[in-house]
Amino acid sequence: MSAVETKSEITISQNAVDQIRKLRIEQDLSDEFGLRIGVKGGGCSGMTYHLGFDKDKKEIDTVIEQDGIKLFVDGKSLFYLMGTELDFSGGLNGKGFIFNNPNATKTCGCGESFGV
Fold first, then answer.
1. Which of 35, 41, 64, 112 is deepest in the core (most CB within 10 A)?
2. CA 85 to chain centre
3. Please, are residues 30 and 79 in contact by the beta-carbon 8 Å criterion?
4. Which structural domains are found in the chain, ordered by start?
């Protein structure tokens, strides 16, 4: 059984697309590498976001492609991330990658954890 490939409600802002491309170049990663995003229990609000590059999609992953960027999202995480926009904020007050998640009913001040 192979991964489900679909168009999803998760989107990537142009700032995030540009930053993901930049990071792939800096880390000398080919276009085969996608960004694995997900959620785990923990953090001050109950759940935390995690992301990192991965070359291999898993059978349970949904693969989301936008502007040449692949996101790998496991089914459990997809449930919490539907409708989310992955953004990136740089500069002096930049926070890095930001999850604009409409499912989050509470978030912590740092933006790295959320609750539903």
1. 64
2. 8
3. no
4. 4-104 (2.60.300.12)
pTM metric for this prediction: 0.78
Per the CB < 8 A criterion, the answer to whether 63 and 72 are in contact is yes
- Residue 66: what pLDDT? 92
- Cα(36)–Cα(30) distance, rounded to whole angstroms? 15
Residue 12 gets which letter from DSSP?
Answer: E
More confident residue, 105 or 112: 105
Give the tens place of pLDDT for each residue, 25-56.
999 999 889 999 998 876 565 778 889 999 98
Side-chain-facing half-sphere of 29: CA atoms under 13 Å = 18
Q: Is 36 exposed, middle or buried (0-12, 13-18, 19+ CB in 10 A)?
A: buried
